[in-house]
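Tutorial, part two.
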Amino acid sequence: PNNQADDPEEHFGLGEFKKKPYEDEYQLRYKLQQETVRDLYTIKFANDVNLIESVVADDNSLHIRSSTEIQALVSDLATWPVRLRWEAERGYVIGYPRRAKDPNYMGESNRVKFHTGNVVTGPATVTVIAIDAHGNVDTKSIQIGINAAGEPNVEILTLGTQRASGQVFNANLDQYKLVCYIQTNGMYIQPYTGMKSIWIGRDGYWWTKVHNCYGGKLICWMVPEHYNAPSTLPPNTPPPLGTIATAVMAEINDN
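Running the prediction step on this input gives:
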């Protein structure tokens, strides 16, 4: 079927129809998903493959909101062309464009810039995956330390009757977790036990379901990972020992 712009349907399976520049014709181009699926069936992992000699960073210790360049040294024994893919468990990686049409020319594709992001601290693992012309695969990783740019902090952005959300800053999520209570005549984790350890994205944003039909106050603590949060507490209980940040919101601002 046609869409509202009277153009062919854009997506079909693992491909998409793209209009040629300055022409009225369309061509089928495979999407990233197709490349990924193809790789899963064609790449070959082997212990004796050594496509990457080393991975080095200009700086192995960074503060939040900073960056460094990382370079993968590809072996002279690799069969060209060699494709490189980069992944980061925290922060994000930006690659440089290729500078030549020669398939054997790496340009600066073996050199990328790693950005720490804005909020989360702790070591980040950056991994490069090399795939040669025969489908052989080699991977190597490097750890980049990410240090706080200020004091730990947690914010509550929204509070409704069924959901709450916010963001944390300058916290190591491998060492600390977020616990939230609804306070009325007491402090309750009700009825969602997930409020004892709330999922936080690597950009620092979090959300949780809440049972707040009585218009209670939301109290959030950043506590050590090993802290076993009670399901109920007396009203106005102080944060436990080791808490690095707290936040309170008393009024509903989200429907």
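The CA atoms of residues 99 and 202 lie 32 Å apart. In part three we will examine how such features are distributed along the chain.
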